[in-house]
Amino acid sequence: MSQALSGPPYRGRFAPSPTGLLHAGSLVAALASWLDARAHRGRWLVRIEDHDQGRCVPGADQAILGQLQTLGLVPDEPPVWQSRREPLYAAALLRLVDGGWAYGCDCTRKSIAEALAAQAQQKARHGELVYPGTCRHRRLSPAQARAWRLLSTADLAGTQDLTLSWQDRRLGAQRQNLTEAVGDFVLRRADGLWAYQLCVVVDDAEQGITDVVRGEDLADNTPRQLRLQQLLGLPSLRYLHTPLVLGANGEKLSKQNGARPLDLDQPLATLQHAAAALGLPDLPGATMADWLAAAVRAWASQGLRRPSLMA
Questions:
Q1: Among 3, 38, 133, 163, which is 20 to 30 Å from 20 by CA?
Q2: Is 15 annotated as a binding residue?
Q3: Which residues are involved in binding ATP (predicted)?
Q4: Distance between alpha carbon 204 and the CA centroid of its chain, in Å?
């Protein structure tokens, strides 16, 4: 087993969105986070990320919890639902607004594209335009604001680029110029929905999470979350981003590109397939409990380093 470091005890989590059932890709993330918690003698939590109710499938939350239980991945504490935590997000946004780091914005996608074109910039990032800072100093009232954004600069004047560095336990040293790569990002959308970045930071802190294990496609979110942790005075976390499971078209396997729900008729075989995607060897175990115990030992032997946490 890995030795515990000084500091807060390990607390990890798996945070699925109930937009459908778990599939092979989401199981890889779930299994990795469970194994990492068990290998460090920590606690493993499940959080249902249902803040965007319009995308959620009725009953999918309970179905996901049932899938995890069938696979032997049972949380150590009762699950929580983001849709029940709105006051926490509102309080965090108010702190950022009061500190001058968050501001109201009334831009549309069309106006953002026009502003970028006027600056001879047409760069898109993962399908999203990098915000040009149009509303930074307009001081819109809450009634005028369509959305709320966070300054991506190192200073309140908006003149100094902000570069963030962190150590991913699998990917190694990471670095991003948040100002250039992302721009001032949304905290609350024009339709009133809370942005994922704010929700996840507030939830992780409120639940005492110390370690985040999730898919590599979410690694790009890390600098935005680090910045929010800094500005809200929250603890920093350790991050480990797992390999992605790809579909037949070479893209990340997801509900959007036809990923099938997990086959739970043979739960042990389903777990073994996920373990192979994580690079674990063939493991012994006639029962699922025996196999999971062997998987924990195999995960611990990989030597994925956990750097010390900084408050």
A1: 38
A2: yes
A3: 255
A4: 10
The one-letter code for the residue type at 42 is: G
Token readout for 63 is: 């179905």
pTM, entire model: 0.90
Give the residue among 194, 236, 234, 204 at the shortest CA–CA distance from 89.
Answer: 194
Strand partners, 61: none
Block means of pLDDT (10 residues each) for the chain, 311 residues, are 60 96 92 97 97 92 97 98 96 97 94 80 66 91 94 95 96 95 95 96 98 95 97 96 73 62 91 94 90 96 63 35
**Any binding-site annotation on 251?**
no
Count, residues in the chain: 311
- Rounded alpha-carbon distances, angstroms, from residue 95 to 86, 191, 222, 226, 238: 15, 21, 21, 16, 24
Q: Is 199 within any annotated ligand binding site?
A: no
The pair of structure tokens assigned to 272 is 């073994």
Q: Is 166 helix (H, G, I), strand (E, B) or coil?
A: strand
Is 49 annotated to bind a ligand? Reply is yes
One-letter amino acid of 148: W
